[in-house]
């Protein structure tokens, strides 16, 4: 392979960037622009949610009260903790710690992500299915405002489903990064992949920070 | 190469503790009945948590101006989407449809 005369960091610096700093900033900017599109991706659903929550508030509050606050709150804690371990994973590479430390933090982050999904699918979605609260598949709620409660559950499954999908993709990304870390691809000079994956992971955390009160806590609980 | 900002571990742990406290607060406040203020409180706390995550975990505090422009632009677009849609839908009843509009519409449908 021909050597590029001006490249001080062969193997890690792409030839079209003048420095690692510029490359790192460009990659981060790319992720931020992607996250801006993600805001709009969730934004469409959130706008529709805002509209129908305003129109059918009683139905939405009733639907919300059929969800278990304890699981939503626990999952909030799990995701916040995973954000901390993700930030520590990035930091460990940044300060040049052993690759085992980075892999360790990535591993804990993935486990917490998987724990979130387990609580979501096994304890919550399955329970909703048993209780006949899944529109289109098995919906049997017969109280007042039943149609609006059903609409609430449509939003609930679309929003949490889309969020869970993002989390599954995030776990996949961290898995790839763990392999890259194991092969010694990261150093205190070069860790932009970790940083960029961290931005994505924290974004998914922020989405949940909004979904928890919007879905579980409508109109207060008792 | 210019040294990048390294955030001390105690700041990360402090932000984590603050996030947990805010999560507990938002859950606790849901059991206090305040009517519309329940929603206001929940959203205020969610925005505070978002800021903590973005500023420290996502390093926005240490980032250059261009990153901030992208973040603020994305939130502006979201605000336009939600505010314009809501301001249409929730203000329609402010000006009732005149009763003589009915027949005109039905005539149009006959054509």
Number of strands of chain B: 0
Major sheet description of chain A: 2 strands, antiparallel
CATH superfamily of chain A: Cytochrome c oxidase, subunit III, four-helix bundle
Query: Based on the structure given, which CATH architecture of chain A is correct?
Result: Up-down Bundle
Radius of gyration of chain B: 23 Å
Strands of chain A, total number: 2
- Could you list the spans of chain B in which at least 5 consecutive residues all have pLDDT below 50? none
Unreliable spans of chain A are none
SS-based class of chain B: mainly alpha
Looking at the structure, what is the overall shape of chain A? elongated
Overall residue-averaged pLDDT value of chain B:
87
| Beta content of chain A | under 5%
Description:
The complex is a heterodimer of chains A (222) and B (111). Chain A has 6 helices and 2 strands, in the order ααααββαα. By secondary structure, chain A is mainly alpha-helical. The longest helix of chain A has 37 residues, at 146-182. Chain A is elongated. Chain B is mainly alpha-helical. Chain B has 2 domains: 1-62; 64-93. In chain B, 70% of the residues lie in helices and 0% in strands. Chain B has helices spanning 9-29, 36-57, 65-89, 101-110. The mean pLDDT of chain B is 87. Classes of the chains: A mainly alpha (222), B mainly alpha (111). At the A-B interface, α1, α3 and α6 of A face α1, α2 and α3 of B.
Task: Describe the secondary-structure layout.
The complex is a heterodimer of chains A (222) and B (111).
Chain A: H1 20-55, H2 57-65, H3 69-94, H4 99-130, E1 133-134, E2 138-139, H5 146-182, H6 192-216
Antiparallel strand pairs in A: 1-2
Helix pairs in contact in A: 1-2, 1-5, 1-6, 2-5, 3-4, 3-6, 4-5, 5-6
Chain B: H1 9-29, H2 36-57, H3 65-89, H4 101-110
């Amino acid at each position: 392979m021909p050597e590029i005369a001006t490249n001080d960091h062969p193997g890690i610096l792409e030839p079209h960037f003048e420095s690692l700093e510029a490359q790192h900033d460009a990659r981060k900017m790319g992720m931020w622009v992607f996250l801006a599109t993600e805001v709009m991706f969730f934004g469409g659903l959130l706008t529709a949610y805002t509209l129908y929550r305003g129109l059918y508030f009683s139905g939405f509050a009733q639907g919300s009260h059929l969800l278990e606050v304890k699981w939503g709150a626990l999952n909030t804690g799990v995701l916040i903790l995973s954000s901390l371990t993700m930030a520590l994973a990035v930091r460990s590479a940044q300060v040049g710690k052993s690759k085992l430390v980075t892999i360790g933090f990535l591993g804990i982050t993935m486990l917490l992500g998987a724990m979130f999904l387990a609580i979501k699918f096994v304890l919550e979605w399955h329970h909703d299915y048993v209780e006949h609260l899944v529109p289109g598949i098995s919906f049997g709620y017969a109280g007042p405002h039943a149609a609006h409660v059903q609409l609430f559950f449509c939003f609930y499954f679309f929003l949490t489903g889309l969020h869970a999908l993002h989390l599954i993709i995030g776990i996949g990304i961290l898995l790839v990064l763990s392999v890259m870390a194991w092969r010694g691809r990261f150093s205190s000079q070069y860790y932009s992949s970790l940083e960029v994956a961290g931005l994505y992971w924290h974004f998914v955390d922020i989405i949940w920070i909004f979904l928890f009160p919007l879905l579980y806590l409508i109109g207060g609980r008792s | 190469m210019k040294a990048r900002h390294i955030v001390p571990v105690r700041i990360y742990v402090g932000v984590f503790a603050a996030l947990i406290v805010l999560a507990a607060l938002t859950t606790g406040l849901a059991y206090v009945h305040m009517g519309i203020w329940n929603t206001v409180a929940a959203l205020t706390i969610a925005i505070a948590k978002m800021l903590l995550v973005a500023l420290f975990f996502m390093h926005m505090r240490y980032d250059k101006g261009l990153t901030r422009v992208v973040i603020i632009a994305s939130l502006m677009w979201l605000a336009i989407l939600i505010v314009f849609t809501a301001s249409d839908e929730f203000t329609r009843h402010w000006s009732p449809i005149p009763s003589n509009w009915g027949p005109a519409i039905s005539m149009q449908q006959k054509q």
